Amino acid sequence: MKLGLLTPFDTIPYFTTEGFKQVIAPEKDENPQVHKLLYRWMKAGHIFQLKKGMYVTRRFYEAHRNDALFSAGNSAIILPQSYVSLEYILQRFGALTEITYPITAITPKNTRIIVNKLGTFTYKHIQSQLYHGFTITEYHGIRLGQASLAKALFDYLYLRPLPKTILGARYNLAEELRLNLDEFSAANRDEFASYVEGSGLVKMDRILKNFRRTVWQP
Q: Architecture of 3-64 per CATH?
C-alpha cells in the first residue's frame, strides 16, 4: 500500500493533503491517487483524520499519545485561534470532581464540536475582550494556549447558565456544581477576582460573592 510514503510524516504532529502532494509528486499540480491513498490508509488505520484535509500518522499517535500536551496540541492544530480551558483544565487541576473526557477550548470564533478518532474537541465562543488569561506553550512546533486555573474557572462559569437561587444566603454554588475550590491558593482566588472585576458582569460578581461567602472565607 506504499506505506513508505508516510515515513516523512511519522515524526511530525500533523500533515495536510497539500503537504503530502508536495512530498510525493512536487512536479504535479494534481494527483488523483493522493486522495485514494489517504482514504485507504485512513480506513486501514494507518493515519487518523484530525479534520478535513489534515491527518496524523498512527506511528506519531502511538509514540506521543501519552504526552501531557498531546490532546491540547491536537486542539490547537484543529483550531489555532483557541486555548484549552473549561472542564479540560479544571479536571487536570482536580477542581472538577466529575470525570469528563472531551477536550474543551475557548475561541473568539464560532462555537463548534469536532469529533475524530482521537477524541471530541469542543470549542466555545467567548467575546474578544475576554479572550485572555492563558499562556502559550510549544509542542512539536505547534503553539498552543492553556488557560490558567483561575481563567478556566471563569470561562466555565461565564458560559454556564446559573439559577436565580445563587442570590440566596445559603446557596453553595461550588457544592451544587461539584467544584473542589478549597485548595485554590490565595493567588488563584485573587486572579479569579481580577477577571470578574475586569469583566464588569453582574453575574460573575454574584458568583464571586457566593464563593467568598461559602468556600473562600477568610
A: Orthogonal Bundle (1.10)
